[in-house]
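Q: Convert this sequence to C-alpha cells.
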Amino acid sequence: MTMQRFLVATGVVFYSLALGLAFVEHTGETAVAIMLAIALALTTARGHAARLIPRVRVWLIVAIGVGLRFSWAAFARLRPVNDYEVFWNAAERFVSNPLGVLATTKSPGAVLYYAAIRGAFDDSLTAVHLFNALLGGLQIFLVHRIAQRLFGSRAACAAAAIYALFPSLVFYSGVVSSEAPFLCSMLAGTLLFLRGEDTRATARAGRFVAGTGAFALAYLTRAVGSLFWIAGLSCWVAGTLRSRRALVAVAGIALFALLCLPQMVSNQRTYGWPIPAPSVAGDLNLLFGTNREHGGWWNQDDIDLVASMGGTLAPERIREFMGNARRAALDRIADDPLGFLAFALSEKYAAMWSSDRGGADWAAASSPRFTVGGGASDPTFFDRGDLLRISNVFYLLVCVGGFVSCTHALRRRDVARALTPILLPVVLVALLHVLLEVQPRYHLVVLPHLSILASARFGRAQRGADGNGKRTEEAAAKGF
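A:
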C-alpha cells in the first residue's frame, strides 16, 4: 500500500469514528444527514444535480456567502466575549503600544487585523462584521480555486457552495475571532503551494516563498497553522526531484523560521524563552487534554493544580509553570496509557469531531438575541436549539460526503493522490488533539478541507494532481 492510500485509509477511519460517535450522541441528526446523503447520491447519479453545478458562477456563490455572513452578524448583533474580547481590547491598545501588545498576545496576526479595523473605524462592530464577511468571501473563492486545481470546475463549484452555506461558519462569522484572518492566510498558502508546478525556476521559487510567508502569517495568527505548513511542505517535497528533496525541505524550514524570527525575539525578551510559537501555553493545553474528569476541555482545576506546584503565568515564572504542567500531563498518560487512549478516541474525539456546535455556541453566547439557560457556559440550551441542529445535520452530511470520497479513493490511485494535500492537514489536526485540549470550535480550521473532500465525487482528479498541483511526471522530473 502506498503512503497516499494509507493516508486515505486513515481518512476512512477518521470519518467512520466521527460518524459512529455522532450516531451514538446525535442519533436523529445523523440519521437525517445519512438520508439526505442517499437522496443526493440518487439525484446526482441520474445526472440532474451534476448538470446544474457547472452553470453556477463562483462570483455568485461568493456573493451569497458574503451576504449570508453579514446578514447573520447584523441580525445577531454579536459582541466580543471571552478570548474574543481579549483580541478586541488588545487591538485597541495596539495603537498606543504596538510592540508591547504584540509581545504579550497569543495571536499577533488577529490583533493586527482587528487593530487595522479599529484604527479606521474606531470601535464599530458593524465594520468587523463587514470585513469578516468579506474575508469569508475570500475564503470561498480560495476553496473554489483549490478544489478546481485538484478536481476540476464541477467539484470546485460544489466545494465553494458547501463552504458558503456551512451554518457554523455563517454563525461564527460575526465573532471577533482569530479564525477569520487565519483561514484566509492558510488557504492562500495552500493554493500557492498547489500552484507550484510551473517549470520556470523563478516562478516556482516565488510561489514557494509566498506560500511559506502565507503559512507563517497563519501560524502567527493561530499556532495550529504550523501543521498546515508541514502538510504543504511535505507534499511539495514529495513532488520534487528526489535528489533535491532534502535541499527544498531545508530551505522551507529555514525560510519559515526566518519569518517567525521576530516572534522568537519577542518571546525571548518577554518570557526568556526563544520559541517561535505565538502562544507559549502548549504545555497547559496538554494538561487540559489529559484531564478525564473535565473531558479534555479547558478547566480552572488544572490551572490551580499547576499553580500549587510552583510558578505562575507571569512572564518571569511561566517557564516553571509550563514545565510543571508538562510533567503532570505526561504522568497522567504514563499512569494509564491504554485508558488515556480509550478516553482520547471516545469522549475527546466526540467533543472535537462528532458535532458542529462551535459556531452555534459562540454565536448564541455573544448575541443579545439568544437566551442561554444557565449562562454562556451552560451547553444544555444549545443541545435543544435550532442553530445546533441545523449545524449538525449539515456538518454530518459533509462528513458522509468525505467518507464516500475517501472510500472511492481507496480504489483509485489518481483520486488518492489528489486528496493527499487536503486530507493530510485534517489527519494531523485530529492526531494533535488526541493529546491536546479539545473544543468543538477547534475543528473550524479544517472545514475548508472537509468541504473540498465532500465535493471530490462531483469531479475528476486532474491529471497528475498531487501535493504540488497539476504536475505531470515529466514536469516533476525537471525538479525545482
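The chain has one domain: 3-279+336-477.
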